[in-house]
Amino acid sequence: MDICRISRADRDEGSGSSHSDAWAEKKKGFMKESKQLVLKAEGLTKWFGEGAQRVAAVHEVSMDLYKGEFVALTGPSGCGKSTLLNMLGLVESPTAGVLCLDGVNIATACAAQLRESRRSRVGYVFQSFNLLSTLTALENVMVPLILTGGDRAASEVRAKELLKELGLSHRLHSLPATLSGGESQRVAIARAVAHHPRYILADEPTGNLDSAAGASVLELLQRIASDGTAVLMATHSDGALRYCSRSLQMRDGELVDC
Questions:
Q1: Range with the poorest average pLDDT among 14-18, 82-86, 103-107
Q2: Burial (CB count within 10 angstroms: exposed 0-12, middle 13-18, buried 19+), residue 171
Q3: Sign of the torsion angle spanned by Cα atoms 142, 146, 152, 155
C-alpha cells in the first residue's frame, strides 16, 4: 500500500453525489476483486476487576475486517469501543477469545511478538493526535519507520513524500505546538500509514477538529481505504458514517449491529 496519490484535483472534487458515486464504485470494485480477510475476532472478551467488582468492558465480540474497508464503530461513551480498539490494536490482551491477523491467532502471542506486530502491521490515529512534542512533523512521521528497522535516509525520504502529498511540505520542520488541529491530524495520519500497515485503527480522529478539518480527515481515511488498507474508526459523529463502507454498533460491551 502507498497512501493515495492525492492530487489537487482529487482534493477539490468535493463531497457531492459524484464523490459519493465514485466511492460506491470503488467499494464495489474491492468486493468484486477479492474479499481478503485481514483481522478476525471471535468471542473477544475483556474483564476488569475481581470478585463482585468484576466487569466485562467487552463481551464476546465477533467481527471481521477486510482489505479496503472503511468501517465505523459507533456507540455511546463507555460502551467499550476504546477497549475493543486496544485489543484489536494489540495494546491490551483479551481475557478470552480469538484474534487472528492474516489467519494467525495472536491473542495469546508473547509480549515480543505483540510488540513486533504493533510496530509493523498496525497504524494508529488518535483524537488527541499523540505527536511527540519534541520532534518535528517530519521526525514524527519517521518514528514508525525507524522502529521497524528502516534506514534513516530512506525513512526521511518516505516521510517527506507523505507530508508533501498531504499538503504539509512547508511544515516539515515544525514542532507540534505550532501546528493547527487539522495539520496535526494529517501528520498523525502520515505517521500511521508510513510503515505500510495491514490496518489502521482511528479513535475519534475528528473529535478535536472543526467541521472543515474533520471532513478533510475523513476524506483522507476514505482514500487510504480505497488504496487497500483496512480502516476501523470509532466515532460519535453521524455525519462520519457516509464516508464509511459499513458500520458496527456497540452497546454495553457488545456488538448489536454487524
A1: 14-18
A2: buried
A3: negative
Residue 147 in this model has a pLDDT that exceeds 50: yes
User: What is the 8-class DSSP label of residue 73?
Assistant: E
70-74 β-sheet, strand order: 122-126, 199-203, 230-234, 70-74, 246-251, 254-257
> For a pLDDT cut of 90, what percent of the chain falls above it?
82
DSSP secondary structure code for residue 190 in this structure: H
**Nearest CA among 39, 123, 41 for reference residue 80:** 41
Quick one: which of 184, 218, 201 has its CA closest to 23?
Answer: 218
Q: How many residues does the chain have?
A: 258
Please answer whether residues 58 and 85 qualify as being in contact, where contact means their C-beta atoms are separated by less than 8 angstroms: no
Beta-bridged to residue 100, according to DSSP, are 40, 105
Between the alpha carbon of residue 29 and those of residues 4, 25, 248, the distances in Å are: 16, 6, 22
- How far does Cα 179 stand from its chain's mean position? 21
Mean pLDDT of 225-253: 95
Name the one residue in this structure whose C-alpha cell is 485489543: 87
Q: Are 209 and 182 in contact (CB under 8 A)?
A: yes
Contact criterion met (CB below 8 Å) for 99 and 87: yes
What Cα–Cα distance (Å) separates residue 200 from each residue in 3, 23, 24, 49, 258? 12, 19, 21, 29, 19
